Automatic annotation (TrEMBL):
It is a multi-pass membrane protein. It is an enzyme of class 2 (transferase). It comes from Marinicrinis lubricantis. This is Sensor histidine kinase. It is found in: Cell membrane. PROSITE patterns: HAMP (PS50885).
Amino acid sequence: MLKISANSIRKSIFIRLVITHLFVILPLILLGIYLYHWSHQNASQEISRNMQAQLSYYLKDLNREMEWLEIQQFDLLQDSGLNELAVTWGMMDSVEKKEKINNILSRLNSIKSSSAYIQDIYLHIRSINRTISAVQGLQEFEKDRFEELRSGGSRDGGRLMIRDDSLHLSVSKWSGRKGEEPLFIVEIELNMERLKDSLRQISMYPESSSFLISETSKFTLASTEQWADLIPQYIHAADKETDDTFSLDAGGKKYQVNRAHSDELGFSVVTYLPEETVSRPLSKFTLWAWLFSVTSIGAIVIYAYSTYKFVRKPLLFLIQSFRRMEEGALNVQIQHEQKDEFGYLYHRFNQMLTKLQNLIDQDYKQKLMMQKAELKQLQSQINPHFLYNSFFILNSLAKTGDVDRIELFTNMLGEYFRFITRNGEDEVCLKEEIKHSRMYTEIQKLRFSRRIQVQFDELPVEMEQIRVPRLIIQPIIENAYEHSLEKMPDEGFLRVTFDMKPREADIIVEDNGNLLDDAHLQALSERFSATSESQEMTGMVNIHRRIVLTYGEGSGLFLSRSVLGGLQVLIRIKQKEEN
């Protein structure tokens, strides 16, 4: 009988598959239940997106048209004949005046014919006290109109100026003298009927309508007068709305409103559409939405049951077998008769248990034996070096003929080699290792008692029974003698101290040698992280490797400059529960 906990059900693949299926089906179910509402929103959003794109394109196109008209205005400002007429009018005879005016009229008519948005073009020339129109020709100078255009009129921050319920573009030609009025002003009056036609073209439905509006002056231009009564209600609601698409209730109807604004023109274009126009084609889908929803719920039930039977139950058998294997039961195999993918997994699981039983002893024990063999090999590399130094000291004493010191030395040497050869233990108590190292310093005192002083502190009681690999301290002391103290012309000093911390024991060996520079110290430190061995530092590298093998990362040798001036070697032993 399968026992299924609530926590395992929440985290199981079965639940995830069912939830995944729900996540796939649920949007379709909601689509079936709320198809009418969703379709209405989708249609509204699509219409809104299309309308927004069309409105933006309309404003850009209108702005480009206004830019082109402004270019024509500025080009007209630079016309040599016009400027000559404005400046030298008094010096011309009647023939020249008529010829210049006819040329200007021809130019104005050419510009008017180039754009359907132009109603008329006016040249208000102050110096000749005349106004020239492309439609009406030469006429009396309109001073009030000239002053209004000169002051800028009502522009609402854009290109277009509002005047007499129509839109205008104007630009002035200044004489360049401070305080003087412009020589003449070029004014283009826009064709309002053509603008209305362009607004009617952007209405996508017969029920929709559009209008241009200036939010500051509230000037409006509607495509049709039929919906003109909606404009005041839009103006009232527009200040409260921040989106470019919103709903507007007016006259008992609900309208979808879209708008776009042009900073260059200072105008917004607005279009509105009754929402019933959007929802009219969608009423037929309600029944189909409910039918689809019921069908989808039935599909979820069938999928959940089949997933539980064909996936959830076989997977639970496999999971429970893995848990028994994690608890150490490697002899419990799965009994099965399935021929599907789970049958293959069960068969491979049983084969894996058999191989684990065969390999666990072979691989695990072989790894332990290899580690122990490496430890012994590293330790054995040190012994020939000790033997060489011992005979070197004995040879030096024999040359001096000091029989008493030879006798003392041979006794200490016997104790020294007895420590190495008395048994095959890999580890000894730190107390014995320190005793052996102190014996080595006593041996060296026989050679260097006059110029090398030794401070060898007493080992703290709490550190005496720590188990350490043999020969990890004496080679460090030997290295200090061989590479530093023996070569010093002045008096040498060797110090061995101890520091016991929680879960850590430190042994510090330092000297006052003066041959070690920073670059050499850095090179020595880097050798401990390298795999290759150096001929000069073989003993220290081996010691570091043995300590790391025994106590793990964080233990080993750490080199730095001593406060005495020479090398400081910190032997760190990280204590663990099994130590």
